[in-house]
Amino acid sequence: xxxxxxxxxxxxxxxxxFFSCKPNKEMKNSSLHKEIxxxxxxxxxxxxxxxxxxxxxxxxxxxxxxxxxxxKNAQDKVAQIKKGLVGSILNVVSVKEVREAQKLVMxxxxxxxxxxxxxxxxHGLKTMFxxxxxxxxxxxxxxxxxxxxxxxxxxxxxxxNWTFAPMIDVSRDARWGRIMEGAGEDPYLNALxxxxxxxxxxxxxxxxxxxxxxxxxxxxxxxxxxxxxxYSTVNVGEFELHNTILPPFKAAANxxxxxxxxxxxxxxxxxxxxxxxxxxxxxxxDWNWNGFIVSDWGSxxxxxxxxxxxxxxxxxxxxLNAGSDMDMESFSYERNLKTLLEENKVSLAHIDAxxxxxxxxxxxxxxxxxxxxxxxxxxxxxxxxxxxxLAIARDAARKSIVLxxxxxxxxxxxxxxxxxxxxxxxxxxxxxPLGNWRAKATYNSAVSLLEGVKAKVGKNTKVYYExxxxxxxxxxxxxxxxxxxxxxxxTEDRSGISKAVAIAKKAEIVFLAIGEDxxxxxxxxSQTKIGFAGLQxxxxxAVYKVNKNIVLVLSNGRPMDISRANDIxxxxxxxxxxxxxxxxxxxxxxxxxxxxxxxxPVSFPxxxxxxxxxxxxxxxxRPFNNKHVTYAGYxxxxxxxxxxxxxxxxxxxxxxxxxxxxxxxxxxxxxxTVSVDVKNTGNVAGEEVVQLYIRDLVASVIxxxxxxxxxxxxxxxxxxxxxxxxxxxxxxxxxxxxxxKWEVETGEFHLFVGGSSATEIKQKISxx
Length: 768
Ligand code: NOJ
Hints:
Layout: H1 7-16, H2 23-46, H3 49-55, E1 57-60, H4 72-82, E2 88-90, H5 95-108, E3 116-119, H6 132-136, H7 141-156, E4 162-163, H8 187-202, E5 215-219, H9 238-245, H10 247-254, E6 259-262, E7 266-267, E8 270-271, H11 276-286, E9 292-294, H12 303-306, H13 312-322, E10 327-328, H14 332-342, H15 348-365, H16 377-382, H17 387-400, E11 402-406, E12 419-423, H18 449-456, E13 462-466, E14 472-473, E15 488-489, H19 497-506, E16 509-512, H20 536-546, E17 550-554, H21 563-568, E18 571-574, H22 582-590, E19 654-661, E20 665-666, E21 672-680, E22 686-696, E23 707-716, E24 721-728, H23 730-733, E25 735-736, E26 742-743, E27 747-754, E28 762-767
Parallel strand pairs: 1-2, 1-10, 2-3, 3-4, 5-6, 6-9, 12-13, 12-16, 16-17, 17-18, 20-28
Antiparallel strand pairs: 7-8, 11-18, 14-15, 19-21, 21-24, 22-23, 22-27, 25-26, 27-28
This protein binds 1-deoxynojirimycin (NOJ).
1-deoxynojirimycin binds at residues 120, 164, 217, 296-297, 523.
């Protein structure tokens, strides 16, 4: 298994989209494109204004579509659908329900324009893969594309044809609960992983019955919410916007993502949903992207609460003029666009353009040929939660684990170890590993850590288990939707701690499964504390008193404050929420059947006060140094991360030697090749993610101290060496300059290569 992610191939893909390298395919696509454009125009020509506005409306269906609509609200919605005044529905899943909903429009409306069915398929439909931040730790684009393609296959077999994923918001604040849904703190990694997910969801052909439309969200800035407060205001300057927040979106647009979603936040006083420059000028004009933009849930109407619109009518006017094409559940378009048109506050041209964008995606999906094409009971029966999908979920789980600490080689553990104590609220937890945004996962269906461990060891190994504490006090019944209810932590019942101590005393090694519950991260789950909630720290200290041989098996959606555990425990594994096969994936790593290869996609802080924390900061005029510890730092904490971006250990070691460049100067149109020898100096084969960073030393707009610009994940046998090279060219060196253009500026650059963002192995080059 040898994987090479050539930055060039990827860069080309990012720039020209994925049809660029295949001329025949390109010709086929261009004739298909023409054909679709003609069909879109001819359908548009048949539509009345109400029908046009209807295409721009998306409803959520929360009622049973196979029976008579129960509430007044459902009855109203059904009546609108029957008239052909609704373009899309979200939250209807299953062949039966989607068919019933589609029938409403196909059997009753004048033009019979099929609806498009959306759902948040974020990290799987029923087979759950690791949560997106966790999976990003694999740095394995092939794997990520594969898991997205399975998620799409299961969704498409359930009647769906559109997912609201991937989230490609660069996110740097661990307090923000939604950090779990993206690829972390780096724009380059978010771009590549976002494109991999889009390719996975959409495949090469949107009309294929096992692919679905993807949605690049949230456009833009949502990950920069002030102080990590959910939905909060975003204050970024123009250069930060272009250099950090927008690149993943540009990559998504170029990769042909079918849709975009705008975001709840404002940017410097302008709500993203009403942001004309972002949506019209940048996305639709500069980037020449031809999909459609859906609002986030209610975000058009919410511009009134922001204080940007007087009411929903005014909000509809602002949103359409700014380029939002479809209104998710705020009813602002449905109720006001026609009047606004009559009052000349919006134009027919803008309505037509929005409708064309929506129809185009419907044609691309093949819905006009067969509105029920995603409604096949056989596929629904055979394509979901299959053995094959679960095997890939296990592979994804183990590849996403990050080994942070392994003192005295406490890991891997021998399968013939005499006794193991598996302790903690996540030790036998079959639900939390499914993560937040778990779509149609069955409650309690994940393989727990305890199950994974038991399946691994022989019968001579004694496996003890104690939960020790309940993490939460139940607020809803088991299996009920926890989404709307903040968790309540147990801070009183310590009755199980002594039992945990008793088994820790008699075990050779302890696997301590603590961290955070799946519902502590995700939408609306921002926190001011990111340590061990409830009584977990007490449990840790009590167990530590009687047994020092502890591996922390951390459950987490976000980076957590694990400083105390890091001070005292010899082993730490970051296991995120790993999905359906969680426990098996973790056991593969604990017992050495898989040598961990994950690298952090986000920095782990020493304490919450360091947030937002990210490696690619700018230098200040008083950069941090060891003499002046107060410079750009804190008086009560080190400035650096506890574990930085890109960090992750293996059961072997890698050395980096002979970093070379083929020449030291280049013009901006030229190329330099940088190479390095990476040697596996240990006794077992292992994978290393070789990372390339650059620093532009002097620039018209200050550049970060390091920026990731390439990586390759390679398997190297024990004692063997591989030479890894990267090409440095315009794509790598350019940025959004003072001239408001993407340019390479002349001057000196540093190139860094290594196994994490903390690498200091460097070479100088200059651009003349
Ligand atoms: C709100 C979230 O912000 C968005 O990401 C999601 O897709 C929609 N709700 C629909 O569920």
